[in-house]
UniProtKB/TrEMBL annotation:
InterPro entries: DsbDN, DsbDN_sf. This is Thiol:disulfide interchange protein DsbD N-terminal domain-containing protein. It comes from Pedobacter frigoris. It holds the Pfam family DsbD_N. Keywords: Signal.
Length: 644
């Protein structure tokens, strides 16, 4: 990234003039948890004692600054931190990584392929004490509990921009003077212009937070910005400011999710401006107001696709995007060929070559990629349908923008054919009203159940119970994409059903124990069943299908098509009852008639409750096909599951 230059005259904007120096807030207790350095570890290569000294110096810098603003400050090393310590303080400032309370887990499928990484845990989900994270600590400590303070890019430098200047942290309780300087817009922001939907400004008013940054000071600690897409799609989160980075102009440098504040800038007070120190103090005071509030919407998958992602998908199908890629590759090739020529001269002269020169010698420019190849590598099945018809991709994304949804796969969007058939956007509460109406009328009940199961986290036995829940809480409902494509309720009351996430990590581990056999062209479908114990007399019966690559089974079959739809029926032993409906897997497009298919590995899950020993009988029916042939249908194959 190029260094930013001041291109206009400096002007000062005083949001609030400094008053007489304010005394520290009385009866305000801050716990500072340290352990980080001011510089990246490479800065201390071969000098471990200097790194320890720098960590100590950083902790002392925070202690001095915090005591200017707060009456009681306790400083500890992260190795001594436990969650219960935060109960004794108004705010915990986290600047070091404590010991985990749960270890990282790698989840694999039946073939041993890595399918999911469950991050290490540092806090429990019921932790609701105010906490402010410095730098990337929000990512490290917040990922396992579903915080939106995730790692978009470790590339935040020293200046802030796009601030909400009317936010409380820029006003008090300590008076703030904000000196704004007009600077060139970060070069990388122009690459993401399609997200803005308008021309990127050439300059931006900026506010200096740090006196050093990684762009101008090699190996200085780098700050972190969180993903902006869907950051504010729940009432428990707010964007406050962006900053100079290599991403979009709305990347989150300062923000809040629940009782957690993200201060993405990484410098200690020793390398902060006086103005920034005051705003940091105000941020600490501000987050204290959220004591006991906790988090409502949880983002367990950091790379979950949102409706903003559609802008990128639509843009990348254009010739404009293709030509921009060609131009970038051509520019890179010229640079590398020039470096290669220099390296060849050095080699011919017998000079020593560093690693960069050695790599340059091996560089060979690749031939330009065709537009067809460019699209095929990015769009797969859509390319098979649209080819190089740029307008067709645009129509597809525009016509379906209100019907996409994303499950637990990174950056993957599917069309919800159920919602599309009703013509109601997935994020509109009317879709729940309509689905409940289907249950009440007995018309297309299966579709209504699928919609309610997909977009809510509650289960009810009768249409009346669904209606009572919806009518009572509709006014406080909101839709969150980052939180899992669910309608949640704006409340911290744990007794109100609707916001209780199931533990994704625990369930994934349990499901992984249910392994199917191998598949082949001769035996294209393998089925396995099993039981997952949820505790409190609740269990889940799981029917897992593995479909051989290139084959599919049918999720929904249009009237005009002759295929057999996949069905699962479960008969329970005495003493057990079903809790809610059968959870159905995601499906994929097959044809324009409305037929959809299941591919790869899918699961049907039925929650049950009860006591005693018995045997559940699962009956499955399906038909498996590829692009050429269909196998004879399987009707009512039975699998037994022991329950105890």
């Amino acid at each position: 990234m190029k260094r930013f230059i001041v291109i206009l005259a400096v002007f000062a904007l005083s949001i609030q003039v400094y008053a007489q120096k304010q005394a520290p807030l009385k009866k305000f207790r801050v716990l500072y948890v340290g352990g980080s350095a001011n510089w990246e570890s490479v800065h201390f290569t071969g000098k471990p004692d200097e790194m320890k000294k720098d960590v100590t110096q950083r902790m002392a810098s925070f202690e001095t600054m915090l005591k200017r603003y707060f009456a009681e400050v306790k400083v500890i090393d992260a190795s001594a931190y436990t969650q219960s310590l935060s109960d004794q303080y108004d705010v915990t400032v986290m600047d070091g990584t404590p010991k985990p309370i749960s270890q990282r887990q790698n989840i694999t499928d039946a073939s041993g392929k890595l399918t999911k990484i469950i991050p290490a845990g540092y806090l429990t989900e019921d932790f609701n004490k105010p906490m402010l994270f410095i730098g990337e600590l929000g990512e490290k400590m917040g990922r396992s509990i579903g915080l939106k303070l995730d790692w978009y890019c470790l590339c935040l430098d020293a200046d802030a921009h796009n601030m909400r200047k009317d936010h409380q942290i820029f006003k008090g309780p300590f008076p703030v003077k904000m000196t704004m300087i007009t600077k060139s817009t970060p070069e990388d922001a122009f690459h993401y212009e399609y997200f803005l939907g308008k021309k990127t400004p050439e300059t931006l008013p900026m506010w200096k937070v740090q006196t050093k940054g990684y762009i101008t000071d090699k190996n200085f600690r780098i700050g972190m910005v969180a993903r902006p897409w869907g950051f504010e799609d729940s009432p428990d989160a707010e964007f406050i400011s962006s900053g100079v980075c290599q991403k979009t102009l709305d990347a989150v440098a300062l923000g809040r999710h629940g009782n957690f504040f993200h201060w993405g800038f990484a410098a200690s007070p020793e390398f902060m401006t006086e103005e920034a120190k005051t705003v940091l103090a105000n941020s600490i005071a501000y987050i204290s107001k959220f004591n006991g509030k906790g988090v409502i919407a949880r983002k367990y998958l950091d790379r979950r696709a949102t409706r903003e992602y559609l802008k990128e998908r639509k843009y990348l199908a254009t010739k404009t995007a293709y030509n921009a890629r060609l131009a970038s590759e051509e520019k890179f090739a010229k640079q590398m060929l020039a470096e290669k020529a220099k390296a060849e001269v050095k080699k011919a002269n017998g000079e020593n070559l560093d690693q960069a020169a050695q790599m340059a010698l091996n560089y060979k420019a690749s031939p330009p990629q065709s537009y067809e190849s460019f699209l095929k590598g990015r769009y797969g099945d859509l390319f098979d349908k649209f080819g190089t018809d740029e307008a067709a991709y645009a129509r597809y994304f525009d016509e379906n923008k209100d019907y996409f949804y994303s499950e637990d796969e990174m950056y993957k969007l599917n069309i919800d054919e159920d919602v599309k058939s009703l013509g109601i956007p997935y994020y509109d509460k009317k879709i729940l009203d309509k689905a409940i109406g289907m249950l009440e009328s007995g018309n297309d009940v299966a579709k209504g159940k699928r919609i309610l199961n997909r977009y809510t986290m509650v289960n009810f036995d009768t249409p009346g119970q669904w209606r009572a829940w919806f009518d009572k809480h509709e006014s406080k409902m909101f839709f969150t994409e980052t939180g899992g494509y669910y309608f949640l309720i704006d409340t911290y009351d744990k007794t109100i059903p609707g916001n209780e996430y199931k533990k994704p990590g625990i369930q994934k581990v349990s499901y992984n124990k249910i392994q199917t056999g191998k598949t082949s062209h001769e035996n294209a479908v393998a089925v396995a069943t099993g039981l997952v114990d949820l505790g409190n007399h609740k269990k889940e019966i799981v029917i897992k299908f593995k479909v051989h690559p290139g084959y599919h089974m049918y999720a929904n079959v249009a009237k005009e098509d002759p295929y057999i739809v996949t069905e699962v029926k479960i008969d329970l032993p005495a003493g057990y009852k079903k809790v809610g409906g059968l959870r159905m897997p995601s499906f994929n497009y097959f044809n324009d008639k409305g037929t959809t298919v299941y591919e790869n590995e899918i699961m049907f899950v039925q929650e049950v409750s009860g006591n005693g020993k018995g045997e559940a009988v699962c009956s499955v029916s399906y038909q498996c096909c590829d692009s050429q042939i269909c196998f004879p249908p399987v009707i009512d194959d039975k699998y037994k599951v022991e329950i105890n």
